[in-house]
Amino acid sequence: MPPTCPNASPRPDTSDSPGASDRALPNSSALPNSSALANHLAVRAELEALTTEAFRPELADIDQLPTLDIAKLMNTEDAAVPTAVAAQLPLIAAAIDAIAERMARGGRLIYAGAGTAGRLGVLDASECPPTFNTAPAQVVGLIAGGREAMVTSIEGAEDSAELARADLDALALTPDDTVVGVSASGRTPYAVGAVEHARAAGALTVGVSCNTASALAAAADHGIEIVAGPELVTGSTRLKAGTAQKLVLNMLSTITMIRLGKTYGNLMVDVRATNDKLRARSHRIVALATGATDDEIETALTATNGQVKNAILTILSGVDAPTATRLLAENEGHLRAALAAAMRTG
């Protein structure tokens, strides 16, 4: 798992689940009862205005339906998510180009969210090293409440913009970094606070939410709002909203890595072979890219210490392993460019 903030407070956090903010307002126990009630009512009014929190009377008897009918209903609901994502593709593409430009200069991709949104960011970040051979600190997932919040609801941490600022300060942001705030509601203080703090520090900011006119989108350089409609279970934003966020994060990381030369066509040429399955996949990738024999592939992978991209370059261009390493370094890891350079000099 990528590092979350080492100084993350143990204060609680949940996802954008119904009533999460109602249950745990910051320091509410220290407020007079009337002030606490006013805060609860204000938050309730905010939630009731959100599409993701809308109540659907036509589903009020869903618990009395046969299981297969509920499954069909849920499947139909999920089918609306890709269409909602498609409506935001130009904005997603613009964000990716901006992220890739900065990462090419050594910047990092940092996700920040609470509850389900935070877990999705940590998940996406944690899958980048084995898939694209990124450094552990190159793609980072921050979740309100720290590592414990990955498996336990930490009530209240999502309400703290100060916690988000502290988590980001621990990473020493630079202008080449990108901070992606993720929140189904688009109002979660941790996510909004992270984006506001990062933008003030000169980093690129992206806001991914599931409601229109969200505070998160307004705070970010690139606001992406995937509106798939109210949930099957009222306010349970781990459902359609969670799926929408997962699809967008997949795009942000995967297409950025494609732009950075981490693939050759649709092959994962930077895959890190850390187990038998991935070693077999590495062998297959070299075979697909080169058409070489098993013996040739094994020789190339051995000579390049298992580096798929380098092995492909040695086979296709005829250069030795040290030359392949040099050509890839000179071409910022882009295999096509390294191949062209090898052909020019060969």
Protein described:
This protein has 346 residues and is an alpha/beta fold. The protein is built from 16 helices and five strands. Helix 9 (189-200) links the parallel strand 3 (178-182) and strand 4. The longest helix is centred in the C-terminal third of the chain and has 20 residues, at 240-259. The chain starts with 19 loop residues before the first helix and ends with a helix.
Total number of beta strands: 5
Count, helices: 16
Q: Give the overall shape, derived from the CA principal axes.
A: elongated
Range of helix content: 40-55%
Strand coverage percent: 5-15%
Low-confidence stretches are 1-31
Gist?
It contains 16 helices and five strands. The chain has 346 residues and is of the alpha/beta class.
Please name the defining characteristics of this protein:
alpha/beta, 346 residues, disordered N terminus, 5 strands, five-stranded parallel β-sheet, elongated, 16 helices
Blueprint of the fold:
Layout: H1 20-23, H2 33-48, H3 67-78, H4 80-86, H5 89-103, E1 109-113, H6 115-126, H7 128-132, E2 139-143, H8 161-169, E3 178-182, H9 189-200, E4 204-209, H10 215-219, E5 222-225, H11 240-259, H12 276-290, H13 294-303, H14 308-317, H15 321-330, H16 335-345
Parallel strand pairs: 1-2, 1-3, 3-4, 4-5
